[in-house]
Amino acid sequence: MRLGIYLVLLTTFTVSANGFSQKVKVTLNLEQRSILEIIKELRKVSDYQFLYRVDELRKCGKRDLKVQDAGVEEVMRQLLDGTHLTWRLDDDVILIKTAPKTAAPAVPQKVRTVQGVVSDTKGGKLPGVTVILKGTTLGGVTDAEGNFKFEIPDQKDMILVFSFVGMKKQEVKYTGQENLHIVLEDDIAEMEEVVVNGIFTRKKENFTGSTTTFTSKELKMVGNQSVLQSLKTLDPSFAIIENNEFGSDPNHLPNIEIRGKSSIVGLTDEYETDPNQPLFILDGFESDLETINDLSMDRVQSITVLKDAAATAIYGSKAANGVVVVETKLPAMGSLRVNYNGNLQLTFADLSDYNLMNSYEKLTFERLAGCYRLIDDEGNILDEEQDQ
What we know:
The chain has about 400 residues and is an alpha+beta fold. The chain has 3 domains: about 1-100, Phage tail protein beta-alpha-beta fold (3-Layer(bab) Sandwich), CATH 3.55.50.30; about 110-185, Immunoglobulin-like, CATH 2.60.40.1120; about 195-330, Beta Complex (Ferric Hydroxamate Uptake Protein, Chain A, domain 1). About 20% of the residues lie in helices and about 30% in strands. Strands 15-20-21-18-19 form a 5-stranded mixed sheet. The chain has a 4-stranded antiparallel sheet with strand order 8-7-10-11, with no helix packed on it.
């Protein structure tokens, strides 16, 4: 009970002190004094404490303060009038700080509508061409007919940048033309020979390991059945071991060797997969034989086969049987695209080297082989001499 009374009295005294401080009247007549000097005088005639940064107050120079029985609001208004400072009263403490900068009102800017069409050197319209105002992110993309239309702020020296995959980037100065006709030229450049090992790309002349790299175009030149079959044809060290026990089962995965066997044979039954298979890397991540075998050749950018100790230095013991690194094509920037590629392949057995029998010769061969015998009218089997 006694503690409660003390708390009530303490709260009452605090409220009274605050109310008293805010009712203090100040009378001062100061001329050509700095703000720091004026604050010292205010401390003498009031109970207020001041919190400020000295370097900020020194920037304000000297001023006059003439007040008669003025409250704290009037005193601080005259003291900081015309300065970059503001103040706030918190209990008996006056905080002086830099006033926040107010943003200038936005002036509506005049805009221009830019429109036109983009084509190649043969006159074909180019969809998906990126058009931007240089130095900004403002712009758009051409539609299916190669047309574009967007708004940009009206300013001096406006330059439009046109870019498209496989085409040379072109910059055009815009001077207010109503309709632009832009022609982009093919960007023909020879690719530098590099080695992609799934982790980094290095120039071929700087790579000491034994590798072979094939592009998508080279893979398609020798066949379109699968990526592995094309590799088998192009690289002699890449061998697909045929297993006659599975016949023509299309779901059976082949056994692959790079430069022959380099691991202990006969371990297939002890593992879920063949431990003697090479390591497969797809876009920097470890993959499996089934994924690579089912990969469409139209998605492949390049395939690199790592054959020697350089592969184990990167991937460790997993690469003891070699590494097959597959890089897929990156999607082109711009609008959504749908591509379709269809291939039809018919395979027939080449029997031109065989001397085939006719029907009479076939029946005679089967009879002589014991498949069936001739019988007489009574159902008796005739001997071979009687048959003749």
